[in-house]
Design brief:
This protein is α+β, with helices and mostly antiparallel strands. The protein has a domain at 3-243: ATPase, nucleotide binding domain (Nucleotidyltransferase, domain 5, 2-Layer Sandwich), CATH 3.30.420. The chain is 36% helix and 22% strand. The chain is built from 17 helices and 23 strands. The chain has helices at residues 47-65, 107-115, 119-126, 135-145, 149-154, 163-171, 181-184, 199-205, 227-230, 242-249, 311-320, 329-335, 374-400, 417-427, 439-451, 458-464, 477-494, and strands at 3-9, 13-19, 25-32, 44-45, 72-79, 85-88, 98-99, 158-161, 178-179, 190-191, 196-197, 214-215, 219-224, 235-241, 258-262, 266-273, 284-290, 299-307, 344-346, 364-366, 407-410, 431-434, 467-471. A seven-stranded mixed beta sheet has the order 17-18-16-15-21-22-23. A hairpin with a 5-residue loop joins strand 2 and strand 3. Helix 10 (242-249) packs across helix 15, helix 11 (311-320) runs antiparallel to helix 13 and helix 12 packs across helix 13. The N and C termini lie far apart (63 Å). 52% of the residues are buried. It binds adenosine-5'-diphosphate.
Length: 500
């Protein structure tokens, strides 16, 4: 019997999962690591701690599964995206703490680029909104602020990578410095159409070519793990950024198929096939994956909409308002009232993401009367998660010209049945929850498994995908329209609040 092994290196924890041929979880191991907040708006990770926790859970999960590395057919990698690591090629030591995707230190640089008129050109080349979220300005910051880094980078002594590259480098004992297109497409340095590093973007951000990793396919063998780590060498054969891996793990292989992950935030991705779609509605255009196809390795693209506060809104009910003791309690509390009594909560606590992208918006709770109680607010919080998702869903349909017929869902908050029912109601299409909740890790395993012949092709994987529960819409079209309009009025009241 042989198995697939997956690395899921997330923002707060490193995880490893063993899957069997049926795509079932055999064993799982997880370790949290330290979050560093050295200044307001700064978020850093210790790249060595990322690697050490990742190696520890890889070893642990093999023990839990009762298998050895020689029983692992291949390893897949999925990772927190955009987080930026710069290390010394000679020693393998990071030259600075990793700058995490959430870190806002380069927003001034982004503002300056915007003021100079670069945003439309950047969007056209990279598919991205000009924002400090992405890696390029973070790398520029490191080259400018770490003493000697720019000169050493130009001389080829330093290596840049997102977390996928960093892990591959470590796993292969420093033999391979590479990335793959789904991660590369989050750097601001990658040309979405040519599938290569973009010289104009490198010049604009003043990034020397010599620091960049080679770009290899998402599905295909890219290296072997050094035997010292797991006791035997294992082929590394598939990799993708976490949200793209979840799209793959949800078997959204055909254009027009979409998934939404309900975690801290919500990330909706829709497969748009072999062409990137230029968004008219402030969504991101991004690479989904490269491959799998034995003849060529075509790039598959996706549209992406990110909602910053989803499950985090429920955390706020628990920790901020203290009207529930655990996240799971929100469901019973919200279900204790038939509706919100026309109360809307706009969770713009850190501004609004897609499709509004308003960094100055702030949270708003509107429509309260003397009859409003905690249950109405709890229900309004769940509606807010669903309504923000619906905004992204509409933008996606408009951008792609494809009518989405259902939405596949995963993530911690998707366990909430009431939330999923509300979601189906406000979307007007079925919401389908998959049987397997580890879709991110599964997506990486699928990519590696296809590359090594462990699975035969997309058809076999599509057949593996199983629905756990389907939520059918219960609202009339007119009810959806009226409710959405009311919600947009509430959103309008939250806009630009922090401007002064
Ligand atoms: P992440 O990967 O972003 O850490 P998870 O997928 O683990 O997120 O989901 C955790 C998030 O889901 C938390 O923000 C939590 O508040 C929320 N959550 C967990 N259970 C529920 C629930 N039953 N109803 C609503 N939200 C929930």
């Amino acid at each position: 019997m042989d198995y697939m092994l997956s690395i899921d290196q997330g923002t707060t924890s490193s995880r490893a999962v063993v899957f069997d041929h049926g795509g079932r979880v055999v064993a799982m191991a997880q370790r949290e690591f330290t979050q560093h907040f050295p200044q307001p708006g700064w978020v850093e990770h210790d790249a060595k701690e990322i690697w050490q926790t990742q190696l520890a859970v890889l070893r642990e999960v093999l023990v839990h599964a009762g298998i050895t590395a020689s029983q692992v057919r291949a390893l897949g990698i999925t990772n927190q995206r955009e987080t930026t690591v710069l290390w010394d090629r000679q020693t393998g030591e990071p030259v600075a703490p990793a700058i995490v995707w959430q870190d806002r230190r380069t927003s001034g640089f982004c503002d300056a680029l915007r003021a100079a008129g670069h945003a439309p050109g950047i969007a056209a080349k990279t598919g991205l909104v000009l924002d400090s979220y992405f890696s390029g300005t973070k790398l520029a910051w490191l080259l400018d602020h770490i003493p000697g880094a720019r000169l050493r980078g130009e001389r080829g002594e330093l290596a840049f990578g997102t977390v996928d590259s960093w892990l591959l480098w470590q796993l292969t004992g420093g033999r391979v410095h590479a990335t793959e297109p789904s991660n590369a497409s989050r750097t601001l340095l990658f040309n979405l159409k040519t599938g290569t590093w973009d010289d104009d973007m490198l010049a604009l951000l003043n990034i020397p070519h010599a620091v960049l990793p080679q770009i290899l396919p998402s599905c295909g063998q890219v290296g072997m793990t050094d035997a010292q780590w797991l006791g035997a060498s294992v082929p590394i054969a598939g990799w993708a950024g976490d949200q793209q891996a979840a799209l793959f793990g949800q078997a959204c292989f055909a254009p027009g198929m979409a998934k939404n992950t309900y975690g801290t935030g919500c990330f909706m991705l829709m497969n748009t096939g072999d062409q990137p779609v230029a968004s008219q509605n402030q969504l991101l255009s991004t690479v989904a994956w490269q491959g799998p196809s034995t003849a060529q390795k075509p790039l598959a693209y996706a549209l992406e909409g990110s909602v910053f506060m989803a499950g985090a809104t429920v955390q706020w009910l628990r920790d901020g308002l203290q009207i529930i003791d655990s996240a799971a309690q929100v469901e019973a509390l919200a279900a204790s009232v038939p509706d919100t009594g026309d109360v809307f909560l706009v969770p713009a606590f850190v501004g609004l993401g897609a499709p509004d992208w308003d960094g100055q918006a702030r949270g708003a709770l509107v429509g309260m009367t003397r009859g409003t109680g905690r249950a109405h607010i709890a229900r309004a919080a769940l509606e807010a998660i669903a309504l923000q998702t619906a905004d992204v869903f509409l933008a996606m349909s408009a951008d792609s010209g494809l009518a989405l017929t259902e939405l596949r869902v995963d993530g911690g908050a998707s366990k909430n049945d009431l939330l999923m029912q509300i979601q189906a109601n406000v979307l007007g299409v079925p919401v389908v929850r998959s049987r397997i909740s580890e879709t991110t890790a599964l997506g990486a395993a699928y990519l590696a498994g296809l590359a090594t012949g462990y699975w035969s092709g997309a058809d076999e994987l599509s057949a593996q995908w199983q629905e756990e529960r389907r939520f059918l819409p219960q609202w009339q079209e007119s009810q959806i329209r009226a409710h959405t309009q009311r919600w947009r009025e509430a959103v309008a009241r939250s806009r630009s609040w922090a401007q002064n």
